[in-house]
Amino acid sequence: MLEEQLLDPRRHDRQTFTSGVQELDDYLQRFAIQQSKKGITVVRVLVDTDTPKTILGYYSLSAAQVDTIQLDTRTQQKLPRYPVPCFRLGRLAAHSAHHGRGLGRLLLGCVVERCLEARKHVAAYALVVDAKGEPAKAFYEHYGFIPCHDNPMTLYLSLGA
User: Considering its fold, how many domains does the chain have in total?
Assistant: First the structure.
């Protein structure tokens, strides 16, 4: 059974994780624990409960804000003219051995669910992500993310209303 867990260096083997994107692998292996401890981000991993040491995928999530002028024109009309609170999906990756099996979609669903739950306690308008390349951008656009005006590799997904 697949389960989402907080990254724990005592329980999860970060060194054998490979997504095929060096930047994403390096982050998990070298920086994720430090940034989690400092309160910069929360890193969650996807594991199979039968082999809980093996990381199948992961994501990092933190607080953010976005200037409304970066959003599409229709959205701008509904929002104040100052930065609005958001969540930032810093990293999202699936293990390369499991590409094409829907783990990216599953992880993204976990992210959105976490954001919607947190939004009950802390206001946030959208989920923002910086795509790490054109394939990642296409992935996010497939799930309804909209490119920002100032940087089309930064995309956002409204979390409601």
Answer: 1
Summarize pLDDT for 104-121 with one digit per residue, the tens: 999 999 999 999 999 999
Where in the sequence is the domain holding 23, given as residue range(s)? 2-158
Active site residue 140: yes
- How high is the pLDDT of residue 161? 60
DSSP 58-116: EEEEEEEEE-GGGS-HHHHHHS-SS-EEEEEEEEEEE-GGGTTSSHHHHHHHHHHHHHH
State pTM to two decimals: 0.94
Nearest to 125 by CA among 74, 75, 90, 91: 75
What is the identity of the amino acid at 102?
G
Residue in 58, 59, 125, 140 annotated catalytic: 140
Q: What is the CATH number of the domain that holds 102?
A: 3.40.630.30
